[in-house]
Amino acid sequence: MKNKRWWVSVIKFEISVDDGCKLDNRIAKLCQKYDIPCTFYIPIDYITLAINKGYEPLPQASYRWLIDNFEIGSHGVTHRYLTQIPFAEAKDEIRASKQMLENLIGRPVTKFCYPRGYSNPDIKEEVRKAGYKYARSTTIGHIKEPTDPLFAETTVHIGCPVRPEYEGSTWLKYAEDRLKECRRINQDYIYHAWCHSWEIDKYNEWDNVRKFFKMIGKHNG
Fold first, then answer.
1. CB-CB contact of 108 with 141 (8 Å)
2. Which residues make Cβ contacts (< 8 Å) with residue 177, sequence separation at least 6?
3. Average pLDDT, the chain
4. What is the pTM assigned to this prediction?
5. Running DSSP on this structure, what letter comes out for residue 38?
6. What is the reported pLDDT for 187?
7. Is the distance from CB of 109 to CB of 73 less than 8 angstroms?
């Protein structure tokens, strides 16, 4: 009789939040309530980004609170799309944001998030050379260990109802279906949800976001 491997599936939940909006605090509080780790990817000049996009930026006191309680990752200096600017400028965005952020928070910064998910092999190599160990994309639908830690896939873009991957359904139903996949097969999973808090507010999705956290909270730990 052949040996069989028996194990219980483990789901590792992760949240990440981009851009540095005042409403990031709401996500932070939900992560604390349900004991889910979260990384906040904040551009160095996040205030100008907020002004340009028409939302309220993180107050300095809130930023300090996030620094003290969560991991902070780099999101560039000015949030420019790295594949759409000269490579020398993209290189500065990647390297300078790491140095400036480390000076600000007083600890190493090992994570990077590509603005709008835009990357290519040269950009990715520059991220590696800068000393980052992990870089997040905006690709969704994945529930396993990233195939490439410098272009890490995610599971669901929460609070955004307009992604084509949802195929006429809702982001919450898509998130629930991915969670069902994790329960169906005996493997270990990484369930990574990400968001923009300003986008959640734009689409009036806070009630569904709370439902989402309650749903994954039941399976966490």
1. no
2. none
3. 94
4. 0.94
5. E
6. 83
7. yes
Q: How many whole angstroms separate alpha carbon 61 and alpha carbon 130?
A: 29
Average pLDDT over residues 18-30: 98
CA–CA gap between residue 45 and residue 47 (Å, rounded): 5
Residue 219: the pLDDT is 86
Which pLDDT score is estimated for 185? Answer: 67
Distances (CA, A) of 139 to 90, 153, 184: 21, 5, 22
Say if residues 74 and 68 touch (Cβ distance below 8 Å).
no
> In the chain, what are the domains?
11-217 (3.20.20.370)
Per-residue pLDDT band for 5 (boundaries 50, 70, 90) equals very low
Q: Give the C-alpha separation, 29 to 180, whole Å.
A: 25
Amino acid, res. 15: I
Q: How far is CA 84 from CA 54, 89, 123, 146, 166, in A?
A: 23, 10, 11, 25, 27
- The C-alpha atoms of residue 118 and residue 138 are separated, in whole angstroms, by 8
As a whole-number percent, the residues of the chain with pLDDT over 90 amount to 89
